Amino acid sequence: MSEQTTEMAPAQSRSEQAVRIIVHEHQALWRVLDLLDQLLSDMNLNDQRPDERLLTTIFDYIEHFSQRVHSTPTDIELYKRLSEKSPETAPLLEKLARGYVVGHEKLVELRELLAECEKRWPEGREEFSHALARFTEALRKHIRKEEGVVIPRARKLLTEEDWQQIIEARDVENDPLFGERVREEFRELRHQIVSYTPEKFGGLGLKHADRVTAPHAEEEMLSIKGLVTSYGQIEVLHDVDIRINSGEIVSLVGANGAGKSTLLMTISGLQPVDRGSISFEGKDLGKISTDRRVAQGIVQVPEGRQVFKDLSVHDNLLMGAYTRGRTSEVMDDIERMYTRFPILRQKHHNLAGELSGGQQQMLAMGRALMARPRLLLLDEPSMGLAPLIVEEIFNIVKELKKEGITIFLVEQNASQALALADRGYVLETGKVVIEGTGRELLSNEKVREAYLGM
């Protein structure tokens, strides 16, 4: 009899198992909304300047859920099956699904208002405060609808077979509520929120930089004029002109052998300049050694990752901070790298050579970030990686931009590189042949034919 009970228990608990997952995510959202109310009150009543990093992380958490839920209920297995069993519920599910899309648009607006509030404080407070209050109230109503209508109807109408299919769904694109990878990403973002939240609001109070936006966006950071460099008698770059402004992502695309990596090595000081100039924040880099360039904030993640394979993951990260010494700040930054790249914490005793290609790329990026770059040079970060890892790498690049790091991205994956970019350049046989905004280059017929396969 006990054996029979053991076999039947999973079947009897399928619906409850699925509902627990939903309720767990909703409980997390309720806690985040309560925290937003506390931060809003602190800002308005106590004149507390907003913590841009904490608020951005909260927005990332909410947006992450919104992005995983597409534009129709059929993208969520639960919504799909409930619509089939209860056609009268379909309009509500459509409305809830549209709410995710509208919510995403509102988050974009909130990020802009937050950056403006931080820039003009306290003048921008009122507009940001009102927009945030409206957003949190709308999200509360959305959750109440799911908890008060969707879940009770699903419990009543869906069969155990339906619930089993819902639980077994694992495609992160088709089932955002139940994909294991997505739930893990939610957990990591919640961990960051708890870490950054002040102790007075029940968090850990981890010390961190409050600002995430570049303080002087639009100011010229790097200027390359008439650059020529050669390997022996062979000229590789021919009169290259490139400008990178503070806070931008600038992408450089081109075929193999176009000179993209050579350009990055020249900026880093690993390749000599024959003619022309490179200046960083008004300083002539020709007079600055390679190691001093790193100390001033120019840091490269090389093509092929090039981690120190015979050193541990932890020691690789320490090597990234070699210009800073062994200070408490360095150890704090290592902890931040482990938070940003959880796999590195798990593998911190492993030799770097034992890691997979994707893990080594995370390590190479973490090592570069340990130098606290202001201009990050990324050389083919997606090369040789699986599609899921490529997606993660580009998500990290977007996060780094939000944190105020200026990025020069060299990439053969032109579609993703230009989609990320504020501006871009096309390099052919050592010459810049096209430049423009990322959107302009994506729609350029020559670029589409040569690099996007269209």
UniProtKB/TrEMBL annotation:
Q: Name one GO biological process term.
A: L-amino acid transport
Say which domain of life the source belongs to. Bacteria
GO terms of molecular function: ATP binding; ATP hydrolysis activity; branched-chain amino acid transmembrane transporter activity
The cross-references to SMART domains, in alphabetical order and at most eight, read: AAA
> Nucleotide-binding as a keyword?
yes
Keyword annotations of the record:
Amino-acid transport, ATP-binding, Nucleotide-binding, Transport
* Name of the protein this chain belongs to: ATP-binding cassette domain-containing protein
Species of origin reads: Marinobacter orientalis
Q: What is the lineage of its organism?
A: Bacteria, Pseudomonadati, Pseudomonadota, Gammaproteobacteria, Pseudomonadales
